[in-house]
Design goal:
The protein is α+β, with helices and mostly antiparallel strands. The chain contains twelve helices and 23 strands. The strands form six sheets. It has a seven-stranded mixed beta sheet with strand order 14-15-18-13-21-19-20. Strands 7-6-5-11-23 form a five-stranded parallel beta sheet, covered by helices on one side. The chain starts with a strand and ends with a helix.
Length: 536
């Protein structure tokens, strides 16, 4: 097939207009075009141009060689790359021991799915509950101020990604097109087909629930096994190799190949790994607040006269500011038309995150406004970042009233360095609720100073960003894992053979797409290692 890029059409074009534009661009007769499919569709909403969709399409024509010769040297007409997934291994008919996947978030799901599709019949251990039970427990915190430490936004089937915007784009390099495999599996499980081609695809929380269930069903149908409410508390290691796992109820499971798809909040499991002698190291992450504005204001600032066009939907943003104190402040996990959610997994702590449904039609836009920090800010070894997070989350719990309400402050008051007492035009979406206070003591002074400098700077890019009534809600601490379970080129732990650190918790991903991609890579590495050890 031939890939054609930069086809520009009016955003309200008729369905047949795209086919006509391809024929016209390639200078071929309509009968010479056999078929086409959209690979990518983005939009151009610059204020000085007519609103337009920009297409990349893959086209099948009768005389492909002739067309490519005619466009030799063009950057807009080239052979289409092969983006299909090709399995690299197949399990033997008999296996001495089944691989184990710990964690059933995006990374664990795709690792287990790929292993199952290759015939390896993995066993998945998930400390939390199945996704629908987990959803009920999560609402228990949001509506009744009741936390279940093993079933919440962080733990359970689908992982933290289930209660997010369901964003499916990533900036990771992907020369083997693993990302296409991720998207195709989501569509096969019921996600909207448009995620295959829209520029910034997302699914949304409610749709993700059904998608995750169907992916679980496929793993089981292929011989895999999912065990919920199974928390791993110990690792049996002999001769620098994994030999078995110990469950919280005392059960022992023999295992010589284990994928660690833990997620970034499995703090007790990180401790168990450290106690077992697995090599860990501290890594940078970020801390800050959630900020909420009217989505209509963000739409006007980003889309100008095109704001509100249903074909475009709610606008997003991505902002960065380098503060005078040397800190970088940036927007994180921006959720158009979404809500701020309670995301703690430990008692007496407050953590925020952002979430959107597929429709993205809630009143507010929200994003993390976070400050980058490094292990120099929390010295003390590989687990020091966890204690640093805990101290901030505990302080937020106190400031919020010790009932899982979150501390909040109006942006105008935050910049003026005075406590807030009343909400204005923006009402916060966080449940169980927001307790107005002064956020200055919720983060280290350098972070507060950097955010106070960044918000007016962001105003220059998005008029209204520093509006007095915008709401800051604290705290955002789980932007990424505070440590790395370091692995080598073979995807195994640096010092424990058979352990495969993977995904966001291990420090090798950030978000649904990159976690899914990493799960595929690690599953491939495990399969190849098994076949090398057990030649047929």
């Amino acid at each position: 097939m031939i890939r054609v890029t930069e086809l520009r059409l009016a955003i309200d074009h008729a369905p047949e207009a795209l086919e006509a534009a391809i024929v016209r661009f390639l200078k071929i007769a309509p009968k010479d075009m056999m078929s086409f499919e959209v690979f990518k569709r983005s939009y151009d909403a610059r204020k000085n141009l007519a609103l337009a969709f920009i297409y990349t399409v893959d086209v099948s024509v009768k005389d492909e060689a002739q067309v490519l010769t005619r466009f030799a040297g063009s950057v807009h007409v080239r052979p289409s790359p092969d983006t299909r997934y090709h399995f690299i291994a197949k399990a033997p008919q008999t296996m001495e021991q089944r691989p184990v996947v710990i964690g059933f978030g995006p990374c664990g799901i795709f690792a287990a799915l790929l292993l199952a599709q290759m015939g390896f019949k993995p066993i998945v251990l998930e400390r939390g509950k199945a996704v629908r039970e987990r959803t009920q427990d999560t609402w228990g915190l949001w509506r009744k101020n009741t936390l279940n430490p093993e079933s919440n936004v962080q733990f359970g089937e689908g992982g933290a990604g289930t209660f997010s915007d369901g964003k499916l784009w990533s900036q990771v390099k992907d020369p083997k097109f693993y990302g296409r495999k991720v998207l195709h599996e989501f569509v096969k499980a019921g996600a909207p087909e448009e995620i295959l081609y829209v520029a910034k695809p997302h699914i949304g929380t409610f749709r993700l629930v059904g998608v995750v269930e169907k992916m679980r069903q496929e793993i089981i149908a292929l011989g895999g096994e999912i065990r919920f409410s199974q928390k791993v508390t110990g690792f049996e290691i002999e001769d620098q190799a994994i030999r078995g796992l110990v469950m919280e109820d005392g059960e022992r499971l023999a295992a010589s190949q284990v994928i660690l798809a833990l997620g970034h909040s499995a703090r007790d499991t990180f401790q168990a790994l450290h106690d077992a002698g697995v090599y860990l190291e501290a890594k940078p992450f970020s801390i800050g607040f959630r900020i909420e504005h009217p989505q209509s204001m963000i739409d006007r600032a980003r889309l100008g006269p095109h704001a509100g066009n249903p074909l475009i939907g709610a606008a997003d943003y991505k902002l960065v500011h380098h503060a005078k104190n040397g800190r970088s402040v940036y927007s994180f996990c921006m959720c158009p038309g979404g809500t701020v959610v309670a995301a703690t997994s430990e008692p007496n702590r407050v953590v925020t995150n952002g979430m959107s449904q597929y429709s993205r039609n809630e009143r507010n836009a929200n994003a993390g406004i976070v400050v980058g920090i490094t292990p120099e800010d929390y010295p003390g070894g590989p687990l020091a970042g966890i204690e640093f997070q805990r101290a901030i989350e505990s302080r937020a719990f106190e400031l919020g009233g010790k009932n899982y309400e979150a501390p909040g402050q109006l942006v105008g008051d935050f910049l003026a360095q005075r406590p807030s007492t009343d909400f204005g035009a923006v009402l916060p979406s966080y449940k169980p609720g927001v307790h107005l206070t002064d956020l200055a003591s919720s983060l280290p002074e350098y972070a507060i100073e950097a955010i106070r400098e960044a918000i007016p700077a962001f105003e220059k890019q998005i008029p209204g960003f520093s509006m007095n009534d915008a709401v800051l809600t604290g705290v955002e601490t789980r932007t990424s894992s505070p440590l790395r379970i370091t692995r080598g080129a073979n995807y195994q732990s640096l010092n424990i053979k058979g352990l495969y650190p993977a995904g966001e918790g291990a420090g090798y991903a950030g978000g649904i797409m990159s976690a899914g991609i990493d799960g595929i890579k690690v599953a491939e590495a495990l399969a190849l290692e098994y076949l090398a050890q057990h030649p047929q």
